[in-house]
Amino acid sequence: MKLSTKLLLIPLLICLLSAGRLLAGDTIIIKAVGTWGYFTNYQKHEGPFWNQHMAEVSGGQIIGEIKPQTELGLRGYEIMRLVKNGVFDFAFGLPGYVVPESEIFEGADLSSLVQNIAVQRQVADAYFPTLARAFEEKYNAKLMMLYPFPSQMIWCTSPVNSIEDLRGKRVRVYLTTLGDFVEGVGAIPVSAPFHDVPEAMKKGVFDCVITGTMSAYTGELYKVASHGFTLRVGWGLAFGAINRTKWNLLSDAQKALLKQEIDTLTERMWQETATEDATALACLSTGPCEIGESGGMTLVEPSASDLVVRDQVAADVILPRWASRCGPECAANWNRTVGRILGLRAQAGMPQ
C-alpha cells in the first residue's frame, strides 16, 4: 500500500475508534415485565419507572420498555425463566411464583407470621441476601429490590365472624404457604389466578378469596363478596430482578444510577403500601372513599382468640410444612435470619 493511501486511512481509523468509544456508552434498552396491569403497584410504580422515569434521569442512556404480565398473557411462573433466557432483561414478580425452582423463595412471606409492615420490612431485609443468592444460582439474575403489596386478607360470600367460620369453606389461594394456612384452619384451598376470581365466586367455585386489600377493591370483589375478615395472612411480597448478563453491559455509572433509583422506588413503595390498607378497607366498606365508590362490605376484625388460633396454625402447620419442603439447611438459614427477628423456629415435623 502506498504511503499516501495509508495517510488517507488514518483519519478514517481515528473516526472508527472514536465511534467505538461512543458505542461503549450507547443507549441501553431494558425490556421488562411487570406484575398485574390492573393493580396500583404496576400503574403507579412499576410501569412509570421503566416507561418514563429511567429515561428521564439517565438522560436517555437507560431506556425501559415494560408491559404487565397480564397484557403479555403470562401467569407468573414462567417469568424468571424468560429472564434467565434473555427474553426479558428485568422482571417484577412474586417469590412464590418461582417456588417450583426452590422452596427457599417462600421464606420471606410465610403465611400469617407477620402482622406489622415495619416488621415485614425487617424480615425482607434480613432475607434479602438469601434470595439474592437463589436468584443468581437459579436464574443468572441480580435481585434489585423486595417490596410489598397491600395486606392479604380473606373476602367471603357469606358472614365470617371468626377463624372457626372458615372451617369447611373453599378458599382461593395463590401460594403454597397460603394453602397451608387454609388447611390449618380446616378450610379447603383452591388455587386460581386472580382474573378468574369474580366469575368463579359468582358460580360458587369457592366461598372465600385470599387477596390484597387494594386488589379486592380495584378488582370489585365487593360486587360478589359481602364480608371481609381482616385477618392478615400474608403480604404478597414481590421482587425486582435483572438478568446479570444485561447488568454487566451497563457502565459503572449506569449501574450506580439504576441501583440508586431502584432503592428510591423501593422506599416509596414500602411507604405507600403502609397507607393503602386503610384506604382500601374504607373503600371496600362504607367509606369515605377517595378513589371511587364505596363497596358496602361488612368487615370483621379478628378477635384475641382468633389471633391465638392463627399463631398456633403458624407454629404447628405453616412453619413445619415449609421446613419439610425446603430442607434442613434452608430451615437453619431461615432461623438465623427471619426466625431471629420473629422469635420463631422453623423445624420439619410430621405432615399435618
Short synopsis of the structure:
This protein has 352 residues and is α/β, with parallel strands linked by helices. Helices cover 48% and strands 17% of the residues. It folds into two domains: 27-149 and 236-278, D-Maltodextrin-Binding Protein, domain 2 (3-Layer(aba) Sandwich); 152-235 and 283-310, D-Maltodextrin-Binding Protein, domain 2.
At the fold tier of CATH, the topology name of the largest domain is D-Maltodextrin-Binding Protein, domain 2
- Would you identify the regions where 5 or more consecutive residues have pLDDT less than 50? 2-24
Q: Beta fraction of the residues? A: 15-25%
Order of helices and strands: HEHEHHEHEEEHEHEHEEHHEHHH
Radius of gyration: 24 Å
CATH H-level homologous superfamily name of the largest domain: Bacterial extracellular solute-binding protein, family 7
Strand tally, please?
11
CATH architecture of the largest domain: 3-Layer(aba) Sandwich
Using the coordinates above, name the CATH class of the largest domain: Alpha Beta
Enumerate how many helices there are, as a single number. 13
Query: CA-to-CA gap between the ends?
Result: 84 Å
Based on Cα principal axes, name the global outline. globular
* Biggest sheet architecture: 6 strands, mixed
Q: Share of helix among residues?
A: 40-55%
